[in-house]
Design goal:
The chain has a domain of about 30 residues. By secondary structure, it is of the alpha+beta class. The chain has one helix and four strands; from the N terminus they run H-E-E-E-E. A hairpin with a 2-residue loop joins strand 3 and strand 4.
C-alpha cells in the first residue's frame, strides 16, 4: 500500500484546493431586438423576441 513519506502542509493542501470552489460569471449576450442583456439561446425577458421572431407577448406597463 502506498503511504506518503511526509505530511502535506496546510499551505500546499489549501493551495491545491483553492481554485476548485470559484464560480464563473454566467455568459450573457445582447438581444438583437432591444439590446438588453439576456442568456444565450433563450428568449429575451425584456421584449420576448428570439432570433428576430416574437415568441412571447410582453405587456408594457
Amino acid at each position: 500500500m502506498a503511504v506518503p513519506k511526509r505530511k502535506t502542509s496546510h499551505a500546499r493542501k489549501n493551495k491545491r484546493r483553492s481554485a476548485v470552489w470559484k464560480l464563473n460569471a454566467p455568459a450573457m449576450s445582447k438581444c438583437d431586438h432591444c439590446g438588453s442583456l439576456k442568456a444565450p439561446h433563450k428568449v429575451c425577458p425584456n421584449c420576448g423576441f428570439y432570433k428576430g421572431v416574437e415568441v412571447l407577448k410582453i405587456d408594457a406597463e
